Each structure stands twice: as structure tokens, then as C-alpha cells.
Amino acid sequence: MEETLIPAAGHLVERMRVLVYNQRSQMGAAAAGAVGQSIRDLQGKSQAPVRIVFAAAPSQNELYEGLVREQGIDWSRVHAFHMDEYIGLPSEAPQRFGNYLQERLFSRVNPGRIELLGRTGSIDEECRRYAALLNEAPIDIVCLGIGENGHIAFNDPPVADFADPFLVKAVELDEGCRTQQVNDGCFASLDDVPTHALTLTVPALMAGHHLFAIVPGKAKRAALQAALHGPLSTACPASLLRTHPAITLFTDRDAFGS
To answer: Where does the record place a coiled coil (predicted)?
Structure first.
């Protein structure tokens, strides 16, 4: 693992271990190594599938490039989920998060079981269907990012609920969240970005046994500082991450600051 910046042994913020790397590529490689080792450890302890929730965003590109190269993982014993999906985009749209994950990861490693969100039925039926899949067994690993507005999955500040009674719900997207999708190059203009989406809720994400957050880039600096040092509040939903008992956050100098 490459040398971290501050400090070399890792930095604790409440219960969160924060690792800062000089380069985004170093961050991605380190995160992939840690996630890969967690998968191998779990597979060494049990024959049960390792159940993983994956984020879909450009911020995760380096993680998935690294995971594809990780050795010793039995992907046939991985049960893969993703954490959010737009409502209203055609099934073949490249911006759909399921399609992103298929291209970047799933088609390259072939998990034994892939559960895509937003593919069947009405919105209410789909929320119930996916929640039932999540409830089949505990989630072992969650790989997630933090949005420019502090969201995790599509739990934007106006709709995030730390005590949400649901595992999956439909939400209206905050304008800051939709603007990020344009900034990331996923859509040409704000008018092209869907206004609603399905998302795993905050409790669904926090229920994962091991959380790995990957947060690179200058655009994430304000959100990351709020998540690490601001109040525990839905004004920055990611702030709750630092209370999780088994979370490591990987970031780079651009996001963390000097």
C-alpha cells in the first residue's frame, strides 16, 4: 500500500479511519487492495456468498479498475447489488448506474449473482422487491462515495433520514446533486438529468458490516470536511459515516486539502 499523507499510520475521526494519498491513482489502488482483502477474508471464513453493495460514479473508477486486477477472489461467490438508479431513463442509457457497473466491473469479473435496481414493476413494487433481496441475508461490504452536497447514494440533504423505516425508496433529487451529474460529465445539461431516482436509504447503507468510502477530487473537499468535522446532521448525510464501527475512507490530497 502506498504511503499515506496525514498521518502514515492512518487518521481516526471518531470511528472512521481516514487514509489520504498523494495521487488519485494511489488512492484507488489502495482502496481496491483493501476491498479485495476483505472479500478474500470473508470467503476464507465461510462458503456463503459475500454480499456487496457497489456505488456507481466516476469517483469509483479507480477502485473498480483495481478490483478487476485483484487476485484470489472467487467472484462466483459474490452477490452484487448497487445502491441507486435513476427513474425514467431508457434501459440502455449509459448513464444508468446498473449499466455503468456492468461495463466497469460486473462484465469483467462475472459475480455469481447480480441484482440490478429499477428494472421491474412499478416504483413501489420495485422498492419492495429490492428491499426483500437486501433482507435475504446481511450485507457484508458497502463501497460508496460522498456527493458534492454530502449525499450518500441518493440520500440528498432534503430527503435523507437517519432513522428511515425503509431500505429502498423513491426520492426527488436535489439540484446540487443533479448539477454534480453534469459536472461529472454524465449529462450535457441540467435539463437532461432525471429529477427522481430510487435509492438505498441511510440505514440500509449503514447496515453493511464493512464500509469503504472512496472520495477523490477538489469538488468533494467541502463535503468531505463537513462529513469529517461538521455536526452529525442530515444537512450532510455523509457525516453519519464516521459513527460506523468498521469504516475506512480513502481520499486524495485534492479532496482532503493540504
So the answer is: none
Which grid coordinates belong to 225? 470536511
Q: Is the pLDDT of residue 164 over 90?
A: yes
Q: Residue 186 corresponds to which cell in the numbers above?
A: 454524465
Residue 213 to residues 94, 124, 157, 204, 254, Cα–Cα distance (Å)? 24, 29, 18, 15, 16
Distance between CA 76 and CA 248 in Å, rounded? 25
Please check whether residue 182 is in contact with residue 164, taking contact to mean a CB–CB distance below 8 angstroms: no
Q: CA 78, CA 51: separation in Å to the nearest integer?
A: 6
Distances 114 to 77, 87, 105, 140 between C-alpha atoms, Å: 11, 19, 11, 15
* pLDDT at residue 6, as a whole number: 42
Q: At what angle do helices 24-45 and 61-69 cross, to 10 degrees?
A: 50
Q: How many CB atoms lie within 10 A of CB 89?
A: 18
When pLDDT is cut at 50, 70 and 90, the band that residue 176 belongs to is confident
Whole-angstrom distance, CA of residue 118 vs CA of residue 49: 23
Nearest to 193 by CA among 204, 212, 180: 180
